[in-house]
Batch of 2 targets.
Target 1
Amino acid sequence: MLCTNAFDEEGFLYNLTDWSPDVAAQIAASENLQLSSAHWEVIDLLRAYYLAYDSAPAMRALVKYCALHLGPEKGKSIYLMSLFPGSPAKLSSKISGLPKPDNCL
Amino acid sequence: MILHTLNAAPSSSAFADCLKTIAEGDAVLLMGDGVYAAIAQTEASRVLEATKATLYVLADDAMTAGVLNVSAAVSSIDIAGFVALTETFPRQQAWY
Amino acid sequence: MMTAVTKKTVLIVLRHSPYGSGLAKAALDTALASAAFEQSFDLLFMGDGVLQLHPGQDSRVKGFKNLGRQLASLPLYEINHVYVETQALARYNIDVSKSPVHIQQLNGSEIRQLMTCYDHLMGF
């Protein structure tokens, strides 16, 4: 369980290295989400994305990246919406411990 | 046709890059440090003239820099003249 | 009533090194923001701008974002037209053949032609 001072005012982790699967569950719980294997698939992918591109994806890039790596069925905004309601790119990045996407318009 | 706004001294890479893309029919507006390319009898003003683009210098910037001996090929304009140029040339590239 | 949205074509001209100023980052942000609005601007790297494509960048020691890696994500934003000045690549001996982004090389006169294909130019 991480202290609240590890997060910014919007609930994003300050330090990528503070992240762990338990922390992901903690952030998810604060957003009223229970993480399933479908969530984890996207979380793992987001962490790989961050390693590859040194940035968190905006929605468009997230959808395309999911399509490339999880198949066309999951590379759809409606699918990501069902897992991470509201603003999927922002919420999934938050749970994955990534900084807030800075081109999240 | 392109309106080039050149805001860098003649020794800069901005000046060199700009030169590569100027063609006849373009306009070049010298502003900021770009005004030094308007000095008469210099290599910089000669190469600009050779492009056959129409050349302008922003009067206030030239005055500030003390560039009074402006090449005869360069017309002096004010901000209103600049605005008028942007209406003639919707495509504008800033070099700085 | 439906109103037709006319798309303006825009070329972003990148002429500065990746970490020497904030210009390279600003250009990248502009490109990514354009994609969010389904505008997909095209990119031209010329002069020192080609240094942004230098392989092997590692900016962690400086605490900066790795611009080279961020550029690699451009295809995911449907930014597929990336052009680069051949002479500038040669000046710095930069090999873009292994770049994750498909890059088209242009000489001086081709760059001029390219620029006149767009409604607007944005210089960074």
Target 2
Amino acid sequence: MKTPPYFEFQSKVQIFAGSNSLEKIGKDMEIRGVSRPMILSSQTVARSGLLNFIEKGYRPGMETGVIDTDIPADSDLETVRRLAALFTEKACDCLIAVGGGSVIDTAKGVNIAVSLSCSNYDITPYAGAGMVREKLKPLTVVPTTSGSGSEATIVAVIADTAQSKKLLFTSPYLLPNTAVLDPRVTLSLPPLLTAQTGMDALTHACEAFFCLAHNPISDAFALEAIRTIVRYLPTAVAEPSNEEARLQMAIASNLAGTAFSNSMVGMVHSIGHTVGAIAHVPHGACMAILLPYAMEYNARKAGERIGALLTALGNEKTFLSTPKEKRTQAAASSVRRLNEKLKTLTNGAHALCFKEYRSKNGEAPVTQELLPRIANEAINDGSIFYNPEELSKADALRVLEAAYEGVPLN
Amino acid sequence: MDIRPFYSGSKIISGSGALDALSFELASVNAEKPLLIASDIERTAEKTVAKALKATAAVIGGICRLQSGEKNSAKTIAETFNRFGCDSLLAIGDADLINAVKAARVELSFGKAPAEIDFTQPAPPRRSVPFVSVAVLTPEIGPLPNELILDSGACITSPLFYPDTVFIDPRVTGKSAAVSKRSEIAAAASIFAVFALSDTQAHPAVRACAHSALQQVCEAIETRSRAEQTRLIANARFLSQIALTGVRFVPEIALLPFLTDGRNPTETLKTLFEAALPTLSFAKDDLSQIVIKLVPNNNAGSGKQTLRSEFETALLRLTQRLVPNSAAPKPSRSELFKAFEAVKESALTAEQKNECLKILQIQMEGTE
């Protein structure tokens, strides 16, 4: 595994991980010289009482400026404007986001609006790559699912509903200052969602490792993440209240997020994004189904790297005892076996292929008729750029047909 | 389930052409007039950096050259920075120079000397002064990226001390003044990485950095191009230092300043490491990963005991290969005693002192 002639890596997020990490936010705020946070979250989290643990860690003189839980599933400019005005009105000086991707992205948008004194809290001049060039106010993120890794990324996606488009903001200054990984936050995540988000994290790590922009540091983060997921995901699904497994999954998701935000992802995401957009299949379910197919599909160009994943999907012994030419297939089989285990643990709810995927109301949203349309749109998804092997529409369709039936690609 | 916090405050840009990104990186933090601070012994590196800036039409706000061991260098840097109206710091040099730039940055940002600031709860800085560094190969076992050594000798830690970006370019590392000591530097990085792995409560990102550092050393050993070899070693050094910022107190490393009076610090580190290795704890996964890195095609142990002994043998072979036993004698009893007294008087905490003194005692017993 040769170091590429050029690479960049950054992970400038202070990480607190452990049983009582929520209570450490107060101390962190003290070090950063702030005392009056705006807390953004969901109603479910607020009802659970988790926010009390944050306030319990406050130092004398600290108090919550405002808590807002009215955040849409897709972060938008209007919400950002409303919250930025509220932030100013309540004299807040920092942000804490407790939630999933939308809450975190909204917090990043509000932070741009209030830190850069945007006129009328309009952040659109900062849309695009590298437009935010100054330090923002301290932002602490507490992810409530172990999968997206968005607490480790430099990106925020905010919808401009008036223009019917999504604005992408990327800047190193959008990295949260602090990520808090506390197992209590994910204890109530149901087994199926735990399985799907866990497989999302596994996909981030695997694609970060075998896609084109990998580097030796992202590789090491990815392998650590994979080892941890393989070891703890089944336990987190089988025993939702197992704090050790929950904590390890939160850490693994963060490591995977760090890995892919430095080395990008590939065709699993290209096809998965499209299946999600067209058939409304949850992202994690798409990742779980498609990952082994991407490993098989990329075997010609990246076989050696995919084979090397066996050291983490299994262990060093498995890797060494598997003949070189069989390692890629063995790695894909390891992922399939993990999926099968998760299917058993979720009483059959975790789907192994698109044909058997069922939505909450029992429908099968992915049909064979949809596959050509999905293939057509998937090849235009941005993540395809870093996939080792070229992917034509016909190739994407071949992968989709196999993933629909649940039969290996080769 | 308490896991140590982890933070890596620097972006790393490594590779041929890394310096070509200098002006872009400065622009990304709204900086356009850096003060270039360089050691007098790194003139070749300084010229390479200046050339790279010129090639991208970037401006150098001013130059501040420092001699090794120069006193009041932080003050000199801050004054030069203000005199030329610079907006950022660009450092090229050894550990002492980087330490001085950290202190100058604090002074410029907070308007106060570092010794006057309580870094456990600092007030927000008056202004933000971007700080980037260009790595040269340097044999000192200097402060870690999150540490600052004060004039009093006390060591303070803060996330504020990390350079924003570290550039590792073979055009610079390959022409560093200490290029002939690259094996020693690789050995020190390997030992740092192994010490980091021995903290089982560390965040897994520490393990990732430590394994990556060892991987870079292994690759460097096999690399023929000297420039590329030095880049890989500089990568390893950076990663092993980042790993160490996230672990418990390591007495063997803390002891080095007390034992390197006229001695080669890496040889001393190696001596202390060899003595400590059998007593350190590691995760089984780490043992097999390291054995496979260091002894390719090995079956990585058939049982725990075998794996552990293979691991120790492989590591000792690596450090011996990089730093062969020299004719220099190990620290004498009187040197150890002197260090013992110095540790007792040092700014370390009582617990840290105890750990260090225990090690010195064991070393003294070995000199009977």
